[in-house]
Amino acid sequence: MQLYSTIDPRFDALIHKNVRMETLWTGARWCEGPVWVPSGRYLLWSDIPNDRVMRWDWADGHVSTFEQPCFNRNGHTIDAQGRVIACEHRGRAVTRTEHDGTRRVLADRYQGKRFNSPNDVVVKRDGSIWFTDPSYGIDSDYEGDKSPSEIGARNVYRIDPDGSVERVIDDMVQPNGLAFSPDESLLYVADTGRTHQPDCTPAIRAYPVAADGKSLGAGQTLCECDVGLYDGFRVDTDGNIWSSAGDGVHCYAADGTLLGKILVDEVVANICFGGPKLNRLFICATTSLRSIYVNARGVSHFA
Ligand code: MG
Asked: pTM, whole model, 2 decimals?
């Protein structure tokens, strides 16, 4: 199978043509939410329908169950103190694993109403935590508990270091993956609303971060997905966007130009950069965890 599809010549500088895609593990129902934990040199990711978090170890490639049950965790990120932050479908919360291992709920409701099912999360350098809240975890019992939406909308929220929660985006159908540009002047958010509205174009939208660092201006479509949907994605240090899609990983320049694709024979739900140099892409591809080295580095949470 062809591994790369170069659309813009700039893509050739971002890949290694002589490397292979590795399948690190297989056996999941739906892989999602990868996060690289640098202090432990391991990768965590979710297998949402199986209600478990898996761990892949850098030192010897061993894969084990890290936590099960796990409140049907979905997206993960890590904060500047190295703590893992998780989106829980069944917990309907954003939680943090403290250094002593305890689970701390950071937010589970907005204006007194429970969230739908937090999906993906990112930490800004000021310590605020931004997350999406589509309905996938309450639509059925497959990835959470089937429940009505208390909020009645699918929004994006910000949790401030003092624990307060504010809504920052309310104009998306199903907000999903999200990431900041390297200078944090833009918040990118994927909309997977086609799952619920056939006329919703699968796209990543770019929202300018206001001068206060807390609110957002009007969003604009940055790119539209030509195969499947964008779910989770990450940004490299040069501002390129590496996104999950129906046929693999799509790489876009900061202006939204599709540079190229890394083709995968399963639907990709999310990716992250990992390894000591953050130059290895870990790919959550439906049933399997894949990886491939690229000539790009993910933005460090510890810069
Ligand atoms: Mg997602």
From this structure: 0.97
